[in-house]
Amino acid sequence: MRRSPGLRIGIILAVVMPELPTTLTRQHLDRLRETFRGEVITPDDLGYDDARRVWNSMFDRRPAVLVRPTGVGDVATAIRFGRERGLEIAVRCGGHSAAGHSTSDGGLVIDLSRLRGVTVDPERRMARANGGALMGELDLAAQAHGLVCPIGTVGHTGIGGLTLGGGMGRLQRHFGLTIDNLRAVELVTADGRRVRASETDEPDLFWGIRGAGANFGVVTAFEFELRAFGPLLHRGLRIYPAAKVHEVWAMVRDFAAVAPDEIALILGIGRAEPAADYPESVAGGPIVLVGYNHSGDASAVERDTAPLRAGPEPISGWDRSQPYLEVQTANDLAMGPGHRFYIKGGYVNDLRPAALDALVAHATRAPGDSSFSVTVQGGAIARVPDGATAFTGRDARFEISADGGWDDPALDETYRGWIRRAMAIAEADAVTGRYVNEIAESGPAESLAIYGDAKLARLTALKRAWDPDNVFRLNHNITP
Ligand SMILES: Cc1cc2nc3c(=O)[nH]c(=O)nc-3n(C[C@H](O)[C@H](O)[C@H](O)COP(=O)(O)OP(=O)(O)OC[C@H]3O[C@@H](n4cnc5c(N)ncnc54)[C@H](O)[C@@H]3O)c2cc1C
User: For residue 112, which atom of ligand 1 is closest to its CA?
Assistant: First the structure.
């Protein structure tokens, strides 16, 4: 709700003071404003309600103060301020965290939205993204030179959270995870130090940054190697009746084992909703979808996707070539902020026939657009040894997840329950690891499930070295 300036004094007396934690007074905030170059926003400021909003409306939290640094010095000032005042510190890039990690009730939010911007050096094929940059900025800057970094699929996702967790998308089997193209980061650590981490500078920290990166500091810059690519991406989608789930799965599984790196492949099980968008024979009922992206030469697409045409007959489908930038922003509006969202992910090497049957039966009860999906891994993702980064799960053949979005808080349990049950069906097939960016719950059990015993032990030692007081704990936390 926007407030009129005339109410300002009343608001300060009636709202702000009771909301400030006992460790934080107006004098502290005044002193912060004297040294901080960027914005300092508290509940009495007109922009507070806009500033506190994150992508997932389930996390309707009220920080005591939000700051928007304009440079590295401001980031260090903010960390020091938060520590001195004993405030819980949240770091925000795109604000898309599924677990609500980039906001806090009563804490300090370091909002990096004033640290956007990406520059590209086409000669060296390198990009430098500031710590608050969004994915769409990197796509646009790189494609201007016929280059690309494999990142995610929605333009307003933050490069920060996406990269520090791993980074999956349409080009990863071809070019590797986002972290496999990350060459260095600059960060401000819990004690205010400015550190560069790469394969040669602080290599152990760089190992942890790539998969558990939200735990070690505020990253103020990312350096990515870019690949020659574009401008077109070749794509297709097929819709199958759910009764064919076994044949479709066999086709996808066998294709996955031999598919060239250029192919990205995803299978979805859900409900044909909204019914008007689907052929009458399946409208409203369970369906199986198979989508592909081909990031190679147009002349190779027909040959490379032949296994999809040799499988069961789809009800409908399409194939087309589209500018990569158009594809990368196509869902930006549909996936816009302000809705409720829940996701749970994992990895499998196969799915049992009984699990497929149970998933189809479960799909008949799917609320709204909730669905279960299987993304093919392998290719460049699997050529990096699992131990090379903190990211866990690259050896699995498939990444799985269930998710859904809705608006009515009264439906929270309906959606979460459906998503949890979908993942419980696949649990017997699950192998070690979870993708950190696809886990909406957090706690010690989730961190163990994400990283597994061995990596969690190595990460714990790193955390003790770089953040022994757990200043950065709003993340899938590594407890020091
Ligand atoms: C619409 C949508 C589409 C998505 N698509 C994909 C996809 O295609 N591929 C994929 O892999 N994932 C995808 N995700 C998941 C996404 O990668 C995670 O939600 C990720 O955490 C979002 O990053 P963010 O910067 O927007 O989030 P934020 O909420 O800002 O941050 C997430 C976490 O990272 C930390 N963090 C962020 N920036 C920094 C920084 N500079 N320094 C230190 N810590 C930082 C935060 O503290 C927090 O713990 C998607 C999510 C959404 C909501």
Answer: 41
How does residue 279 score in pLDDT terms, banded at 50, 70 and 90? confident
pLDDT at position 470: 98
Task: Compute the distance from residue 47 Cα to the ligand 1 centre, in Å.
Answer: 23
CA of 241 to the centre of ligand 1 (A): 34
Q: Is 410's pLDDT higher than 90?
A: yes
Closest CA to 210 of 465, 7, 462: 462
B/e letters for 33-62, b = 16+ CB within 10 Å, e = fewer, are eeebebbbbbbbbeebeebbbbbbbbbebe
Q: Is the CB–ligand 1 distance for residue 218 below 6 Å? A: yes
Render pLDDT for 18-37 as a digit per residue (tens, 0 to 9).
456 667 899 999 999 999 99
pLDDT at 19: 55
CA atoms within 13 A on the CB side of 124: 10
- At a CB cut-off of 8 Å and minimum separation 6, what does 457 contact? none
The answer for residues whose C-beta is within 8 angstroms of residue 94's C-beta and 6 or more apart is: 55, 134, 135, 156, 157, 158, 159, 160, 161, 162
Which residues is 118 bridged to in the sheet? 129
Centroid of ligand 1 to alpha carbon of 419 (angstroms): 20
Instruction: Give CA angle at 330 (324, 336), nearest 5°.
Output: 135
Give the other-Cβ count within 10 Å of 201's Cβ.
13
Looking from the CA of residue 93, the nearest atom of ligand 1 is: 30
The answer, yes or no, to whether any atom of ligand 1 lies below 6 A from the CB of 58, is no
Atom from ligand 1 closest to the CA of residue 56: 53
Q: State the pLDDT at residue 170.
A: 98
> Which of 102, 216, 328 for mutating ligand 1's site (highest number of atoms within 8 Å of CB)?
102
Q: What is the mean pLDDT of residues 38-67?
A: 97
**Taking residues 83-108, what's their average pLDDT?**
97
pLDDT band at 272 (very low <50, low <70, confident <90, very high): very high
Please say if the pLDDT value at position 467 is more than 50: yes
Cα–Cα dist 77/270, whole Å? 48
**Which residue's CA is the nearest one to ligand 1's atom 9?**
152
Q: What is the DSSP letter of 339?
A: B
Going from the Cα of 92 to the center of ligand 1, the distance in angstroms, rounded, reads: 9
- Nearest residue (CA) to ligand 1, atom 1: 335
